[in-house]
Structure prediction request, 1138 residues.
Amino acid sequence: MSGPTSTGVSHRKLAMWTFIGSECMLFGTLIATYMIYRGRNIVGPYPADLLNIPFITVTTFVLLMSSLMMVLALSAVQRGDARGTKLWLAMTALFGLIFLGGQYYEFSHFVHEGLGLSRNLFSSSFFVLTGTHGAHVAGGVIWLSTLFIRAQQGKLDRTHAETVEIAGLYWHFVDVVWIVLFTLIYLLV
Amino acid sequence: MSANGSHESLYAGGIWSWLTTVDHKRIGILYFVTGFVFLLVAGIEGQLIRTQLAQPGLRILDPELYNQLFTMHGTTMVFLAGMPLITAFFNYIVPLQIGARDVAFPRLNAFSFWVLLFGGLFLYASFFFGGAPDGGWFAYTPLTNAEYSPGRGMDFYILALLLAGVGSIAGGVNFLVTIVNMRAPGMTFMRLPLFTWMALIVSILILLAFPPFTVGLVFMLFDRTFGTHFYDAAAGADPVLWQHLFWVFGHPEVYILILPAFGVVSDVIPAFSKKALFGYPVVVFSGILIAFLGFGVWVHHMFSVGLGPIVNAVFGGATMLIAIPTGIKIFNWIATLWGGQLRYTAAMLFAVGLVATFTIGGLSGVMHASPPADLQQTDTYFVVAHFHYVLIGGTVFGLFSGFYYWFPKATGRLLSERLGAAHFWLTFIALNVTFFPMHFSGLLGMPRRTFTYAEGLGLDLFNLISTIGAFIFTLAFLPLIANLWRTWRRGEEAGPNPWDAHTLEWTMSSPPPHYNFAVTPRVDRRDPLWHPHVEPGLGWAGEVEPGGVSPRLQPDDPPEPIVMPDPSFWPLFMSIGLLIATIGGLGSLPVTLVGAAWALVGLFGWAFEPSEGGH
Amino acid sequence: MKRRFVQTASLLVAAVLLGGCGGEYPQSALHPSSDFAGRLDGLFNQIFWWAVGVFVIVEGVLLYTLFRWRDRPGRGRPEEVHGHILMEIGWTLAPALILVAIAIPTIQTIFVVDRPTDDPDALVIEVVGRQWWWEFRYPELGIVTANEAHIPVGRTIDLRLRSADVLHSFWVPRLGGKRDLVPGRENHLWFTADSVGVFWGQCAEYCGTAHALMSMRVIVDTPEDFAAWAELNAGDAVPLPDAQARAGQGVFMSNACVSCHTIRGTAARGVFGPDLTHFGSRLTVGAGILDNTLDNVVLWLDSTQHVKPGNFMPEVTLTDDQIAALAAYLRALR
Prediction:
C-alpha cells in the first residue's frame, strides 16, 4: 500500500511520529509519578545515598554518542555507503548495549545495597521508570541489530534509507527521554 | 487474490480466510460481531443487576457475585462492547469515506482485533478460575490491592486491559495515519465526512489517553505481584494517584465512546434531511474542542476526594465549558433538520433519538459539573442515570443509527424499516423507563454499587420501575433479531446508494468489492454524491439522472490491476504470543517469557513477510 | 426573594413528582436539614431550573422541527444552507451566559463548603471508616462509639474523616454532601444541623463485599438531650440489671468476642470491631441495617454472615441459651 500519500510523508514515518507522541504520554506519566513521590520516602535507602552521578554521567554520554552514530548510519545508508552503514549501525547498537550494561551494573549495585524493587517508594518509582526506559533501549538494540544483519546480507541499500531513518527517530526519542530522566533523577537529587 | 472482485466473494471463504484476513471490511465485521456478542453479555449482566434490585432486601444474587457482575458489566460495556463496535465502524466505513482501498497498516489492523478478542476472552476466563474481578471497572485502590483483593480477579482485570490496550493504541496509530495520509485526491480535511473527522479525533484521544492508564495498571500489577508501593499509603504513597491516572484516561474515554456517535449522527441527519450539514466547520471544531477540553476535566470524577476549593473550582469550571461545544453540536443538528425533507428511517429515528436523549444526559451532566451540587450526586444513582443517558442515548443510539444506515452497504440487503422502527421505539421507551427514575432514587439517597437497599428509604417504587425498564430492553432486541432473520431470508437488494446519501462509500456496489474503489475518486467539494460529475476518460458508470437517485460512480471492474495486501497469519500468531505472555502474568515468569519469545518470532515473521502481493 | 420563590417552586415540583409514592425519605438530598445540605440544595435548585428551561426549549424546538419538516409528497429538494454565523454566535453565547450564571454561585459555594470551619466552638468528631462500619470518636468528650453519632442541634460539627483500610465516603444526605475517607489523608467536613431528628446515611464509595450494608444514623438532639447522652456515653458500662445479663457477660468474656470488641469497665479491650460499651442505647444493629430489638440481636448473633455477608464477625458456635443471654447482656449495655 505504498505510493503517494496525502501529506507526502510515508505511512511508516507518520506512524512512528504518532507512536512517539503516545510514548510521550507514557513517559510523562512515569516521570510525573516519580516527581510526585520524590521526597515522600519513609524508609531508606534514599536517592542521595545511592545515586552515582559520575558513573551515570559516563553512560549518559555513551547514549548521547550513540545518537551521533545513528546520524552517521543514516547518512551512510542515504549515500549508499554499505560499509559505513554496517559500521555505524553496529556502533549505535553497541553503545546502546554499553548503556544497558551500565544500567545493569547500577541496578545490581542498588539491590546489593538493599534497595530491591519493593524496598520503598523511591525504589518502586525509580526502577519502574528507568526500567521502562531500559526496555525501550533494549528494543532499540534488537531493532538496530536486525538492521545490521540485513545490511550484512546486503539487503539494506539506499532504497531502505527510510527504514533506517525511522529506527533513528525511535532511537533519538529514547535518547531524549534519557536526557530528561538524567536531569530529573540524578541532577536534581 | 482474485483479480475480479465479484461482490459475493467479499465474505466467502473458509475459517482460515477469516483468521488471516487483512481486509478492513472483514476486520470491521469481526469487530462488530465481537462487540455485539459482548454487548449482549454485558446486557445480561445489567439485567441480573436490575433483577436483584427489583425490591429491597432481595438475595437473588449474593453480594460477591453482584459485585463481580457490576464490575464486569461496566468493564465489558466500555472496553469489549463500546470500543469494538466503534472500531468496527471505523474499519468498515472510514476507508470507504476517504476513497482508500484499505487502512494504512492492514496487518496491524488484524493484530489490533486479535489482541482485543483475546483480552476479552481472557477477562471472561476469570469466571472459571476463582471468580471475576469485583473491584469495579474503576478498580479504586486500596480495595483492589493484594491485601483487600487477594483473589485472582483483579489480576485478570489488569492483564486483560493491558492486552486489549495494546490493540487500542495500535488501532489509534493505524486510523490516524489512514485518515491523514490516505485521503483521495481533493479530499481536504474540511471536506472529510463528519464520521471520519470524529474517527480522527478519537484516534488522537486513544493515543494520548491510554498510556497513563497503561502506566496506572502496571503500577497496580506491580503492587499486587512484586510488592511495590505505588499506591501504598503506609509507604508514603497516595492511593489517590490511581484515581488521577484512571480518570486522566477515563474521561477522554467517555469522549472516545461518544464522539463517533456524534459523527454518525452528523452524517445520517443530512442524508435523511436531504440537506447539507448546517455549520460544518463549527461542528468539526466543536468536536475538536470537546476532545481538547476532555483532557482537562478528569477531577470532576473526584470532587468528593477533598482536593481543596481551588482544584475543585478549576475543574468544575472546565467541565462546564464542555457544555458549550456540545450544545453547539445539538443546535447545528437541529438547524440541519430545519427546512429539510425528513425521512424517518430507522437510522434517522436513532439519530434524532440521540439528539433528544443526549440532551437530557448533557443537562444532568451540567448539574454535577458544579462541585458542591455533585457532593450530593456523585456515587449515587443520579450519576448512573446521567451516564446511561449519554452512553445509551448517545453512544448506543449513534451506533444503531450507523448500523441501520450502513447495513445495506455492508451486506447488499435492505433491512425492514418497520421492524427497525419497532426496535427504536422499544429501545427509546426502555431507556427512559429504566433510567429516568434513577435520577430520583439517586437524589433520595441510593448510592451506587450496592447489592441491596433498605426498605425504609422510600426507594422501592423507583427501583421496581427501573427493573421493568430493563426487561423492556431485552424485549427491544427481538425486533432487531427478527429483522436480521428476515433480511437474511429475503432481503431486498440494496443497490449502491439506497438512501440517496452524500458520501463516497455510496459510490460503489453493495457490498463493496474487496479493493473498494476500482478508480480512485476525485473529490472537489463536500457531499460529493449530491453534486456528481462524471469525469470523462475514467470509465465511471452511470449518468446523472436529474432529480433521481444518484448513479453508481464506480465501474464494475477496475480498468487497471490493483495491488492489494495478501492475507497474513502473522498478526494472529503474534497475538497468540501476547496472550500466552498475558496468561503468564498471572504468576508464571517462564510462561511469560515463552509468550514474549513467541511474539518476537511473530514480529520477525511479520517484518520479513513480503507485504505486498500482486493479484 | 427570588431565591425563596425558586426553592418553594422546586419543592412543589418535587412534591408533585414524589407525591404518588408517599412515605418519608430519611436519606434524601432533597430534604436538607443543615446549613451545608441547604447550600447544596439551593445551588442544585438553581441549576435544575436552568436545566429545565433549556430542556423545554431544546426539546420543544426539536419536536416542532421534526413534525414541521417531515417528508411530505410534492416538496422539492430542500434549499442548501451551509450555516449562519450569527446563529452560531448566538447559540455559543447563550449557553455560555447560563454557565456563568451557574458558575458564580457554584464557586461561592465551593469556597464555603470545601474549606475547614473557622468556628472555634465547633464540636470535633473523628470518623474512622472501616470495612464495613463507622467509628465515631469525640476527643473532647472522651466518647468512642460506632455507627450512630449523636450531635447537638445548632452547633457546628467538625468531622475529621480517616480510613482504617480502603476508601469509604461519609454521606448523610439530609445533613450534607459526601466526603471520602482516604487512607493516609485526613479530610474535613462541617455542618450545623437545624432540626432535631434521626438522619440516615451510608457509605458512598464502593468498599467491598458488604458496601451496601455500611449504614449509619446521625441523631440530632436538643442540647440538653445531647448533654445527657454524652454524659452516659463517656462513662463505663452500666451495672447489669439481672442474672441473665450477667450470664451473657460470662459468655462474652469467655468467647472470641473480647478479642475484637471493647466494653469499657470490663476486661474486653479489643479494637478490631465496634466499641459496645453502650450498645443497648443504640437504635440499630450491624451498622444501621437492623432495628435494635431483642429478636434482631439474636438474629445477628446467630447468623451474622447471613444478615451481613462478608463481615468480619465470625459465627461463633453457641447454644440458643447462650445466645439469648448474650443478647440480653448487650441490650442491657445502655
About this structure: Chain A is about 80% helix and 0% strand. Chain A has a mean pLDDT of 95.
